[in-house]
Amino acid sequence: MKTTPSPAPGPLTKGGPTAAESLDRNGSLEFSTAPLEFPINPWDIMLCMSGTVIACENAIVVAIIFYTPTLRTPMFVLIGSLATADLLAGMGLILNFVFQYVISSETISLITVGFLVASFTASISSLLAITVDRYFSLYNALTYFSEKTLQYVHLMLLGTWGVSLFLGLLPVLGWNCLDEPASCSIVRPLTRSNVTLLATSFFAIFVLMLTLYFKICKIVCHHAHQIALQQHFFATSHYVATKKGVSTLAIILGTFGASWLPFAIYCLVGEKEYPSVYTYATLLPATYNSMINPIIYAYRNAEIQRSIYMLLCGCFQANGAYRSRSPSEV
């Protein structure tokens, strides 16, 4: 992404905009690619670096799940979907940086922003799908490991990627502000109404995830209490087990909220005239969520750890201590 010029000299927009046009687009990020006449924006460098780390992390997860036949359960299918979405988002950030400073094309600008919208939407939607899967794995524990569950997961993924692709195509199909600069949002070439739709969708997903994790927390506490009664644990053991489960849920929700909430809120209240540093400062942390996702959802899983060890060390012998975790433990 590239900032449009403020009254002082800055990165150029496409087609050599006039001073009035530059002032009109002062605060919005522009997914455009213009001849490089000024130093590269350091914020763009940080976004590119973030995209590189995201792509590398999630490429490993995708490769491990794809080449490990035992990782075909609903839980790993959803984790694979999340890793794929984050991998595409990381690649999109890298490509956006390259196209921005090398190739000047409105078509590429629209394709890039559409690609990023679709990728990040798929990432957030996959997180919601994982939350739903966790809830049903606890609520319907006896029937969770069935063929019907796998079919349900495939339907969720179909909906997730279908909606993400649709939202990503909207700017390419004409819902953009290239022909009407006054309608631009803080992220050019997205219109204000488009950004509002995306932010509202995020808040709906966040509230739904918050509700589901609250119900999951109640189930976890109830299960911990039942186990404590059956095995005659002391109250301290019950407290420790419950606290650990609640802490894990708090970390998951806290990380997601801290990453995306600032940018989603700014999408609703920000104006294109505002300094672009505000947009960068809220967007960059949002990309960190895709960087943290593989750590929370993949690298903590015992089976994925074992697959990584086997990949890095061919002489590694499978240890019987490893066991498959349920979705509620990942």
TrEMBL record:
Keywords: Cell membrane, G-protein coupled receptor, Glycoprotein, Lipoprotein, Membrane, Palmitate, Phosphoprotein, Receptor, Transducer, Transmembrane, Transmembrane helix. GO terms for cellular component: plasma membrane. Its main location: membrane. It comes from the Eukaryota. One of its GO terms (molecular function) is G protein-coupled receptor activity. It is a multi-pass membrane protein. It is found in: Cell membrane. The chain crosses the membrane at residues 43-68, 75-102, 108-132, 152-175, 195-214, 246-265, 277-299. Pfam families: 7tm_1. Belongs to the G-protein coupled receptor 1 family. This is G protein-coupled receptor 6. It comes from Seriola lalandi dorsalis. The lineage of its organism: Eukaryota, Metazoa, Chordata, Craniata, Vertebrata.
